[in-house]
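Private note to self, pasted from the team thread so I don't lose it. Backbone tokens:
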């Protein structure tokens, strides 16, 4: 196979695989709907990217070309239709990732939230400790500036995505499940089917399954040995004790695990949620065989993931954090973590809902989570791959929010609204194109 062609190359998971095949010496190119920082980076790395749905860009030699597509691409996409009708081998992203990980020791991180930070931290611990790994990540690591790590060591860290049941293409030796909340209900229908898919994933784990304490997965669902983890519940096999909060929201804790205690771990990122993510990642690495002292050191040098509790400004009187949260449970957890970091300060949140179906299915839960801030600035829904649904707008969240202050604005009005607000602690939330505002907001706040 000489060429690998990607339909939807700008997606975070797709771009990691594109980079992988480029590193392997293949000719790599692809289509995406809109330019982004990620497509710019791919082009700088010598990967051809175009933004018009035109089969003319596809390599002509079908026998020498593998086509990989994301399920987020609409079925009437001209390029996808062309390759299906002209003898190309066409596979989903998940199948490609499954094929790459076979024959290696796969360490997988699954969960409706928390998986990107946790998998990136696992990869960082193994790299920093000298164990080594390749890694396919769902975000850009701030330590390495990429979503792909490549190593000669036959260990691969993979983010196991439940969207479209993608994670059922993975057969991990060690896996962690961080959460099993109702999400992607356009695919699953209800929470019961979400949980059923996670149990099917658990059945494919061959060695050790680490699950957050209380998740509905049991020894009946998997042949793997099950361990549990939790923020601070002593009933869990891996948990924190002696938790201390330091300056500007950083925490230090001791990690209790089946073979002892690792003292004085201080995650490189502030917020209590990083304690829980660190415990899950440490559990994977300790089970894998990483030295406990190396785990402690690496957690301290972790710089996080772009758009995951991403601190842009943090000084007395002004804090600005950007976060990818787009599910009610993610919002609730992150808001709680920020409250713990900055007690008594006014918290202003900007939220851009992502997908009409998710907004429709979870509007009451979104309203409840967002009611925990002091002021909500709510934007219009970002549609991504979806067509509008009659009656589904941001208003169905907004009307039930009970925060002391709330306002709905368009993206065009956002910067003006924030300049009048003079926020104390500001957080921007969303998985759409709200990331385009991070730099302008940071610059505006720094000037003030």
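Design output:
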């Amino acid at each position: 196979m000489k060429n690998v062609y990607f339909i939807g190359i700008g997606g975070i998971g797709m771009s990691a695989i594109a980079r992988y095949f480029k590193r392997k010496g293949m000719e790599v190119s692809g289509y995406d709907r809109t330019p982004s920082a990620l497509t710019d980076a791919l082009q700088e790395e010598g990967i051809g990217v175009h933004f018009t749905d035109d089969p003319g860009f596809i390599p002509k030699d079908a026998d020498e070309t593998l086509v990989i597509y994301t399920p987020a691409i609409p079925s009437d996409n001209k390029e996808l239709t062309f390759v299906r009708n002209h003898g190309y081998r066409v596979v989903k992203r998940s199948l490609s990732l499954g094929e790459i990980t076979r024959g290696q020791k796969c360490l997988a991180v699954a969960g409706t939230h928390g998986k990107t930070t946790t998998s990136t931290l696992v990869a960082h611990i193994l790299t920093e400790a000298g164990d080594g790994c390749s890694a396919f990540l769902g975000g850009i690591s701030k330590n390495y500036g990429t979503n792909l790590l490549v190593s000669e060591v036959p260990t691969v860290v993979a983010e196991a995505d439940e969207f479209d049941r993608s994670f059922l293409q993975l057969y991990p030796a060690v896996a962690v499940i961080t959460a099993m909340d109702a999400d992607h209900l356009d695919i699953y229908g209800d929470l019961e089917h979400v949980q059923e898919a996670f149990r099917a994933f658990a059945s494919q784990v061959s060695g050790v399954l680490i699950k957050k304490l209380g998740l509905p997965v049991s020894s009946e669902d998997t042949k793997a040995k099950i361990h549990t983890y939790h923020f601070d519940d002593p009933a869990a096999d891996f948990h924190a004790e002696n938790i201390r909060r330091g300056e500007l929201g950083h925490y230090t804790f001791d990690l209790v695990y089946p073979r002892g205690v690792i003292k004085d771990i201080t995650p490189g990122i502030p917020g209590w949620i990083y304690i829980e993510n660190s415990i899950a990642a440490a559990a994977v690495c300790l089970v894998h065989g990483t030295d406990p002292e190396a785990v402690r050191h690496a957690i301290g040098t972790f710089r996080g993931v772009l758009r995951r509790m991403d601190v842009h400004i943090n000084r007395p009187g002004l804090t600005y954090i950007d976060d990818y949260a787009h599910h009610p449970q993610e919002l609730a957890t992150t808001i709680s973590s920020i409250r713990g970091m900055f007690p008594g300060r006014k918290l202003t949140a900007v939220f851009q809902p992502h997908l009409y179906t998710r907004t429709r299915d979870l509007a009451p839960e979104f309203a409840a989570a967002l009611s925990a801030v002091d002021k909500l600035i709510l934007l219009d829904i970002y549609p991504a791959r979806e067509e509008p649904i009659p009656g589904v707008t941001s208003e169905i969240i907004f009307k039930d929010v009970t925060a002391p202050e709330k306002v709905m604005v368009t993206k065009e009005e956002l910067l003006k609204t924030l300049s009048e607000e003079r926020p104390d602690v500001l957080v921007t939330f969303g998985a759409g194109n709200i990331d385009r505002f991070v730099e302008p907001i940071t610059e505006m706040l720094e000037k003030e």
